[in-house]
Specification:
Helix content is 43%, strand content 14%. Strands 3-4-5-6-7 form a 5-stranded mixed beta sheet, with helices on one face. It has 18 helices and 14 strands. Helix 2 packs across helix 4, helix 4 (102-124) packs parallel to helix 5 and helix 13 (338-350) crosses helix 18 (453-477). It is α/β, with parallel strands linked by helices.
């Protein structure tokens, strides 16, 4: 019997190294005793382990991530279960994700529980500021996770709060981030840090967002379990807010307006009625400045800013995409996110100089739906495309390109009035309403979404061929 004692800090990495060694020696799973922390004697530890055939471990990335996630669970049998599954995956007697296998089913469930625990730490850690002894601000937090998730969860805080020094203490381990370096140690001080002014801020914020009309106590306790409440300053308000919810709803109903405000009615009427603008006069810079105040469709309200086109005002090539993404919305420049980076790489390979092209989008504001702290892209609908065609037509009239490269269905819809059949039309030459030649291609974001590697490579090659065709057309027209 082989006894393995894993350290409290770096437990998963130590298990990985030990498991690789044991598998290489052919030690079966039932011949290993796993422990964490200080050395303890075991009745069977003195028995010599009987080796079997050695294994060479080659596992898919998903299996490695899944096993290592489950190793952070509090179950004492997690290391033995993980090693047993590791060997059976290496032997080919078990497929990763096969829930019909009891051990695999339990490991996957425990990995999911660990993921939830990490999410709860990210959501419910409450930092308190400490007196600063140098230029960087200092914070401390106490948190009680259900599983051994501190090492797995804290890189999130290091990325998000890299300009501060902080400590997150748990009953077993403490994470310390000083001067940009993250380190772990065993916890010696189990006292929570003293309260600071942010406690009242948390209470004020929570009270302000509490919606009595949508109160669902069970759903709230599922998202914010009671076991975390004693470390959350805002949690002390919850019983009172729940108790007074019915009275607050009745009060809101009694004070509800019987008619919409005059201003809201006017805005709704204005947005529902297409504007009869006359063409603007002036330079491209003047049009861009005017577009910063655009309210032609509702997309302007949640977006950060109007993302207008960029490039030489006499560019021979005009490239039209769909709409700004998250990074473009923040930067105010088109095609700087993942799709823009792919476009730049394929344009360079195709011999197309982006700096000599005018790059814009059919829709100038970022359309998204919030999901937690992320903003998830949504495709513009027909009224939004039609409203924004005003700006695209002005850009086209001022640039007067020799060729327009329409990337994706939204661009085609705006430029030709028909966005269907993009894959059949790809690589073909059409015409804009004023007769300008128009080359149809896919949008680079489509390539990023293709799941099959071979199909994605084919899509990239087709996209590169279209860009090379555009470059050749411009050269021939010069």
């Amino acid at each position: 019997m082989r006894q393995i004692v894993l350290p409290l800090i770096g437990t998963v990495a130590a298990w990985r190294a030990e498991a690789r060694t044991l598998a290489g020696e052919g030690i079966p799973a039932d011949q290993v005793l796993w422990q964490v922390g200080g050395q303890t004697s075991d009745l069977f530890a003195a028995e010599e382990a009987t080796p079997g055939p050695p294994r060479t471990l080659r596992l898919p990335r998903a299996a490695v991530d899944g096993i290592e996630g489950a190793l952070c669970h509090s179950d004492p049998q997690r290391f033995a279960r993980g090693y047993d599954i590791l060997l059976r995956l290496a032997d080919g007697t078990l497929q990763w994700g096969d829930r019909s296998d009891p051990s695999m089913h339990k490991l996957l469930a425990q990995g999911k529980a660990v993921g939830r625990d990490v999410h709860k730490m990210h959501a419910f850690v409450r930092f308190r500021e400490l007196p600063a002894d140098h230029a960087r601000r200092r914070f401390a937090a106490w948190f009680e996770p259900e599983h051994a998730t501190l090492e797995r969860a804290t890189p999130f805080f290091a990325n998000r709060f890299g300009d501060m020094d902080w400590v997150i203490a748990t009953p077993v381990l403490t994470a310390t981030f000083l001067g940009g370096t993250l380190a772990f140690s065993e916890t010696t001080d189990r006292d929570a840090p003293p309260e600071d002014a942010t406690e009242d801020l948390w209470r004020t914020y929570y009270a302000s967002i509490f919606n009595a009309a949508r109160l669902m106590v069970k759903a709230m306790q599922t998202e914010m379990p009671k076991k975390y409440w004693h470390n959350l300053p805002e949690a002390e308000l919850i019983p009172g807010l729940i108790q007074g919810a019915e009275a607050r709803v009745a009060d809101m109903a009694a004070r509800a307006a019987t008619e919409p405000p005059v201003r809201r009615t006017a805005v709704a009427r204005d947005m529902a009625t297409p504007r009869k603008d006359t063409p603007m006069q002036g330079s491209l810079a003047a049009v861009k400045a005017e577009a910063q105040g655009c309210t032609r469709c509702p997309l302007y309200a949640p977006a950060t800013q109007t993302v207008f086109g960029a490039g030489p005002p006499d560019a021979p090539l005009m490239i039209v995409g769909e709409q700004p993404g998250d990074q473009e919305d923040l930067a105010g420049v088109p095609f700087v996110g993942p799709a823009g980076q792919m476009f730049d790489a394929e344009a360079e390979a195709a011999g197309l100089d982006r700096t000599q092209a005018y790059v814009t989008n059919a829709v100038k504001h970022f359309k998204f739906t919030p999901r937690g702290k992320r903003r998830i892209h949504q495709r513009p609908d027909r009224p939004e495309i039609d409203a924004c065609r005003w700006w695209l037509d002005l850009e086209r009239q001022l640039i007067r390109p020799k060729l327009i490269l329409a990337m994706g269905a939204t661009a085609l819809q705006s430029l030709t009035g028909k966005g269907e059949g993009i894959l059949k039309r790809r690589g073909g030459m059409e015409a804009a309403p004023d007769g300008t030649p128009l080359l149809v291609t896919i949008h680079p974001s489509y390539i990023l979404r293709v799941p099959d590697p071979a199909a994605q490579q084919t899509a990239r090659e087709n996209f590169r061929a279209d860009l090379a065709q555009a470059a050749a057309f411009i050269r021939d027209a010069a």
